[in-house]
Amino acid sequence: MARGRAVKILLASSNQGKLAEFRQLLAGFDLVSWPTGAPSLPETGAFFQDNALQKAEGARAWWQSHGREAVDGVLADDSGLCVDALWGGPGVLSARFAPDLPSYHDKGRRLLAMLPEDADRTARFVCVLAFVPMPGPMHGGPFTVSGAVEGTLAFDPRGDGGFGYDPIFIPDGHEHTFAELPAGTKHTLSHRARACAALRARLATGRR
Ligand code: IMP
Q1: pLDDT digit string (tens) for 120-148?
Q2: How far is the CA of 3 from the centre of ligand 1 (A)?
Q3: Which residues belong to the active site?
Q4: Nearest to 145 by CA among 202, 94, 187, 88
Q5: Ligand 1 atom 9 nearest Cα
Q6: Residue having the nearest C-alpha atom to atom 5 of ligand 1
Q7: pTM over cut 0.90
Q8: How many other C-beta atoms are found inside a 10 Å radius of the C-beta of residue 15?
Q9: 8-205 CATH choice from 3.10.410.10, 3.90.950.10, 3.40.50.300, 3.90.76.10
């Protein structure tokens, strides 16, 4: 695939927080953004992997009839925060948790309020990436890779960096939330960084 040039990947997401991270984590790939006004991609599965594949396949089908340039493949991410005391929730429903609250500081506060005072505060961010190649004799089939980062929940949201639930998540080995830590630190240990490293390795094995 993509002999002698950067692999061109359509990023099937309109989440600006994720996109900013992908641009850092997938430096060296030729990344194409999901166009403004393109349909939002359904995610109706019960597992991160199902949703990531569903989004990537939906995006590939749409791109085949509407895409403005050729790409080698489509990448979609399904990710979320899994809290042990909530039996892994909100998990795949992270983006849909507390839809009445627009701010993630408020969503985080509501989530924290659901925990009993003496609850186990362990949690992890999980990211599954699905890569679906465009049809072609050298392009192979769809695959997924994943990454996770373990941590604990803060008692209150802290910090303005990052996005989503970053203000309530303290990665193991640190005292600050992802929203307080420099972006560079998050990029060395996050669920998305780990999944992107696995994607890079997987795509590299197919290069000549
Ligand atoms: P989805 O993958 O589109 O279902 O959305 C995942 C949701 O999980 C996002 O909207 C965020 O709320 C949350 N999430 C995923 N990754 C991160 C992260 O790196 N930091 C904070 N929140 C995240």
Answers
A1: 999 999 999 999 999 876 678 999 999 99
A2: 33
A3: 78
A4: 202
A5: 95
A6: 95
A7: yes
A8: 16
A9: 3.90.950.10
